Amino acid sequence: MKKIAQTVGLTRLKEIVAEYADSNPGKLRILSLQPTKVNHTTKHIFKQLSQVLDNQDVIPEFAILENRGAPGIGNILSASELLYFSKILNLTGETRTALEENKILEGLVLNLDALPELNEEILRVIDEDGEIKNDASPVLKSLYRERAKIQTTIDNTLKNIMQEHNDILQDDVITKRLDRTVIPIKYDRKGEIGGAVVNLSRTGNTAFIEPVELLPLNNQLRENTIDIEEEKKRILKALTDRTREQFDVIAGNIGTLTEIDSLRARARYARDFKCSIPLFSEKSILNLKQCRHPLLMKERKVVPLDMELDEKDRILIVSGPNAGGKTVLLKTIGLTVLSAYAGLPTPTLEGTIIGTFKDIYGIIEDEQSIEENLSSFSSYMIRLKKILEEAEDDSLILCDELGGNTDPEEGAALAISVLDALRMRGSLVVATTHLGTLKFYVAEHEGMQNGAMEYVDGPTYHLQLGIPGGSRAIAVAESLGLPKQVIEKAKGFLDTSILKAEDLIEELSRRNKKIRQHEKEIQELKLRLDKLTREYNEKIKNIKSEEKKIIGEAKESAKEIVKNARSTVETVIKEIKERNASRESIKQYKNTFESMLPEEKEEKERLIYPKGSSFPINFDVDMEIPLEISVRGMTKVEAWDKIDEYLDRAVLAGYESVRILHGKGSWILRNTIHDRLKKDSRVKSISIPPRSEGGAGVTIAKL
To answer: What global pTM score does this model have?
Structure first.
């Protein structure tokens, strides 16, 4: 597989995918991927990848990942190196939490151990700038206190000396030279102060003198500095030893994080190149749906490939014009299969099936060996010989220009014989050709099928299954600018039946292209309709939900009214009773109040209110009220009675507007309804919807 992987561009594809990784180890992990036979591991990787595809954003960034080896025996890690391992442990814990919360990559989660005790110990000792903290240990803390005291004594001593000898100072700044605290004295007066000359300025005008009073203090400070460095070294050694003990776990964390980084890189590539995760079959079959060559996608718009080869049809012979896409088709097939075998998503639609092939052979492009002094034909035959010796029923074979580079008749005879041999073995074969004899042979034998690279006023790069393609050599030559007289003379030499056949094939391709365009338009309309249907159903669902909410609030309000009314009645009766009213008058008063209250039922509640008519109107609060009614075909009286009752229900339900379907007819019914609605106190305004929503046959009443 290695040679054909290079030919179809797998190495370049891995480089593209690797750029999506955060870290160098992640990039190297992608670049190291190799095609292997489909097995449990391959399927498990794609299962993990599917989880990452849906959860890319929850995974932390891995830019800090580096491949670092374990500290050798005797080596001491620096504070910044230890801080790096702390950051790795922090990233490990953060990643594990994210994966656990989203319930993904459960197998990899088990390999992540944040080593909290070690991490806590590192962070207790080292600050965020990669420096050892002053209080990293009790000894170090004590040494820094001692240092501060010594430095204070030195500063006070210097101030006294400088005040006493102010006239001989070159500058009043305390400084250090050769790690000793000194004062700058004018060179010609350096003998006026006791002490040692530590250094001179570049001009020689200033002598930096360590006063004799500072000598023991500077010695103490130097000893203190050595003690601090020794304590720091001891602290780093202890932490290094602890890190070395746990380095297998740390290295395992780095390896797991690298794998997750590589998975997310593949997911990012899948997002940008519109890839899917293929299905795998244990059979040696292929079903490619809208398959594209990812390397070409970076350069131009690519025509997708649809192709199916199953247990029945094992051989596909593709013909068509030069520069029509035949070689690209073979490379697309080879790269799709090999990239899937390497654990990379494929630029295909969901439902693409890739079979299990033990070997993949390819004779694509001219790979003749100049060193061996082989012609194109000889080189081709040597590679074809290897295929015939090794290929079996689970082999995928891709051959460019089968039977070419030699006499057409002999080449066709060889090609037919090779195809028969491979068909007997059950190998899956995709080959390209210009040989008419081979096209006719395939058309007459089972298990084989023709395919054509479409040509409609030029190559379209679309594969048509079931028909052969014309080479269109003269048409291609004409499009490339060969002289007209040469083209016309060439047509005269050619059998007219061949020209007619190629014209017929082009006309058939033209019709197929139109059908394909119509199918695409139909599919787009279907998708649009499905989207509108979903949106409509969602709006209806929301309206019903709001309607139920309003009705529920109305019921609660009604109950509250009943409760308050009853309470009022009881209060009034109590007051009457306290005023010594007769029992008969109290009873009569109570009955009068109860008759004014709405009826209460266990299952439903009805609200009763007058509507300016001689009879009460009952409304069932639980009833679902539609957003529109139809009164088409009714008399004016029947229509208004129905509308009148409907408006009451709509107002109670809290609707903002309703639709009334009355039709057009002679306009009498519509005009009557409009007149009544304009005068109705429940209606704020009326309007006519657009023609697409019913036009003049519908009235919208805003309540």
So the answer is: 0.66
